[in-house]
Amino acid sequence: MNQNLSQAALSLILFSLENYDKDEVTNEVLKSVIAEEQNRLGNNPAVDWNWVESNLRQYLSISEPEPIIIENEGLEKWVRDRPMDAWKFYGRYRGWLQRVDPRYPVQQLDRKTDDILDRCADPRKEGRWDRRGLVVGHVQSGKTRNYTGLINKAIDSGYRMVIVMAGVHNILRAQTQSRIDHGVVGMQSADLVQRLGQPAYVGVGAMDPSFSGAVNCLTSTPYRPDGSSSQRGRFQPVDGPTAPSQYP
């Protein structure tokens, strides 16, 4: 993120809202004005639009609309029974987010990831179970940080494998892999998968190289396996058979 460009976009949007009374700036008006500014700037990737929207909402006192939730009745909630110190991977990710973007609303991330994980089954539950769900978010609504936080919490809760469906284009898959490397793995996945010596620490790993957890990667930014037995044989766990695996 380019902080100067993001601040400039924020200032331009506030200027364009000067003709509105504060109570006239509804959620729909805010979304429309942000979209107009994104188009005007060519949807510049250097601008952190999540940060811009979050600060606009805070300044204008506009609350985020509550999500529409459809779920089975009698769903057993379990996440909030876990103590705060149980969030080892998520705590590291949360701390890294606060370091790279001190203004990011981590409390919202805490709540949203809790709400989603609460609707998944507790992996410690005995016997056979089957839980399926879908979360849908708008463009530039913070989905990447949301599912990265959720992956970290899932690992903390005991889930052993996470599969990220990153699209059909390899350039987008590699971009997603890089974000997972920074937010979950903490190391360059290319170094891990291809055994290129000591892996380079990135993101959460560079912030805390002494972190005791480890995540196995079956893919890397330049390398995507096709599932063949010969390629599966290239993968060797980095932290023994009990380490969780990540496969975008």
- Going by helix content, strand content and strand pairing, the class is mainly alpha
Largest sheet: number of strands, sense, barrel closure = 3 strands, parallel
- Our estimate of the beta-strand percent is under 5%
Gyration radius over CA? 20 Å
In round numbers, the mean pLDDT is 80
- How many helices? 10
Number of structurally distinct domains: 3
Rounded to the nearest angstrom, the distance between the terminal CA atoms is: 24 Å
Return the string of H and E elements.
HHHHHHEHHHEHE
| Number of beta-strand segments | 3
Task: Report the principal-axis shape.
Answer: globular
SSE topology:
Blueprint: H1 3-16, H2 27-40, H3 49-60, H4 88-100, H5 106-118, H6 143-157, E1 161-163, H7 170-185, H8 189-193, H9 204-207, E2 216-217, H10 229-232, E3 245-247
Parallel strand pairs: 1-3, 2-3
